[in-house]
Amino acid sequence: MVSPTQLKENEVFMAFSSYATIIILKMMAMSAITACYRISVKAFANPEDSVVFGKGENAKKYIRTDDHVERVRRAHLNDLENMVPFLGIGLLYSLSGPDLSTALWHFRLFVGARIYHTIAYLTPLPQPNRGVSFFVGYGVTFSMAYRLLKTTWYL
Amino acid sequence: MVSPTQLKENEVFMAFSSYATIIILKMMAMSAITACYRISVKAFANPEDSVVFGKGENAKKYIRTDDHVERVRRAHLNDLENMVPFLGIGLLYSLSGPDLSTALWHFRLFVGARIYHTIAYLTPLPQPNRGVSFFVGYGVTFSMAYRLLKTTWYL
Amino acid sequence: MVSPTQLKENEVFMAFSSYATIIILKMMAMSAITACYRISVKAFANPEDSVVFGKGENAKKYIRTDDHVERVRRAHLNDLENMVPFLGIGLLYSLSGPDLSTALWHFRLFVGARIYHTIAYLTPLPQPNRGVSFFVGYGVTFSMAYRLLKTTWYL
Which CATH number do you get for residue B109? Predict the structure, then answer.
């Protein structure tokens, strides 16, 4: 049963918990970066936001899209698209009794690849920097899915 | 081990389960609201949807974006961006043995803030209504992440 | 407590794990399909991607949106919007001690409906194919939420 101390009794689950939290916090930072960019270049999606920074005609001018803001938003959405599979499969994989060091390397590679992906997206670095980091994260998730299905196939 | 009754033996986990379900249902409502708006103002993204409501030239006219529909979609995406961190971190936090009343207040604040965020986004209410409700939800997730990492740091 | 073998001792959880992994893998395929479409029709969102496939003026021409690419992206986003509720509620529902065969039918219906939704979206099939498959998945998630709240209501 779930005892209050259970997280501390399963090393793989503890490791997953730490890495998952770190990479979720990185994803959450994208919201703050978007907000900062929007305010610094004055490019808003909502009239009620733009009127805070300008009156009348100015406020209308500020409702626009900006290349930098859209770039951060694409990076954010890409994070979300890759984080949901990692969190879902990673959690189940952690509970399927994997080898600790194998699991740790999966988590480390994923977190490293996604942090590098964000750097490559926001700088932006020339391809294939972003492409490779995307596929490393993608491959890690596939590898966990394969190992998970091998141990718990039940349809 | 996971017994069929485990959810009922851990109060924090039961509370997380209830609050998470409520706020997920609220997020799911955004899909229905988007569909209703799309039909009421006749603004579709797909040709196969628009032909249901008009023939020939009319069907083409209905493939367009509409301010109200886009607003609901932005609110929905913002929900998604904040729900994934809450679900991931909240689940792990619930299993890390937190104090029941502390955990309850985290869940309540998050759920309240996100419901108010939706109201502020869809009405729309003037800023800083939406901004403040966003940051309350954001802060609650950060607070859970901090408490979780303090108890289960393992890299 | 969480033992390394716990997944194998709870049939509902094992089943959830298998179905969730399958449907997450399907969602992950959308990223690959988007990338393939972008390359085949040469429609990119980022300058650093387009310069891989053309020089100077050509590279600029390739920064554009394409109907097929946008369709895949909408299908992907719709997946994400429905997968997060399914994963969150489904996991908690699996741990709430449901009847095995009831749970299995929930998972099967959801996975089947979402696979059909993708086929209907990408072909595209005429409505109401996509609409019905959407609402089946939506209804399954609601049904699990209802059963979950009935057993674990704790606010």
Answer: 1.20.120.550
Measure in Å the smallest separation between the Cα of C88 and chain A Cα atoms: 9
Query: Has residue A4 been placed in a domain?
Result: no
Cβ–Cβ below 8 Å for C74 and B46? yes
Joined together, the tokens standing for residue B125 give 């209410």
Q: Are C147 and C93 in contact (CB under 8 A)?
A: yes
* CA dist., res. C7 & res. C27, Å (int): 23
What distances in angstroms separate CA B86 from CA A80, B97, B111, one per listed residue?
13, 17, 10
| C80 close contact with B: CB closer than 8 A | yes
Distance CA C142, CA C6 (A): 27
User: Does residue C52 belong to the interface with chain A, where contact is any CB pair within 8 Å?
Assistant: yes
Look at residue B132 in the predicted model and tell me its pLDDT: 94
Give the mean pLDDT of chain A.
88
CA–CA distance, A85 with B11 (Å, rounded to integer)? 28
Residue C20 CA to residue C119 CA, distance in Å, equals 19
The secondary structure element, H or E, covering residue B34 is helix B11-41
Residue A86 falls within a domain, yes or no? Answer: yes
Q: Domain for residue B57, yes or no? A: no
Peptide bond into C128 cis (omega under 30): yes
Q: Is residue B55 part of a domain?
A: no
**Tens of pLDDT, residues C26-77:** 999 999 999 888 888 888 888 888 888 877 787 788 888 888 888 999 999 9
Of chain C residues 32-51, which have a CB less than 8 A from chain B? none
Could you give the number of structural domains in chain A?
1
Six-digit token pair at A10?
Answer: 């399963």
C96·B46 Cβ contact <8 A: no
Secondary structure (3-state) at C71: helix
**Cα A125 from Cα B153, distance rounded (Å):** 32
pLDDT, mean of residues B36-44: 86
For B84, the domain range is 9-29+67-152
CA distance B128 to B147: 28
**Nearest in space to B101 (alpha carbons), one of B4, B1, B12:** B12
> Are the C-beta atoms of residues C34 and C46 closer than 8 Å to each other?
no
Establish whether the linkage from the previous residue to C4 is cis, with ω within 30° of 0: no
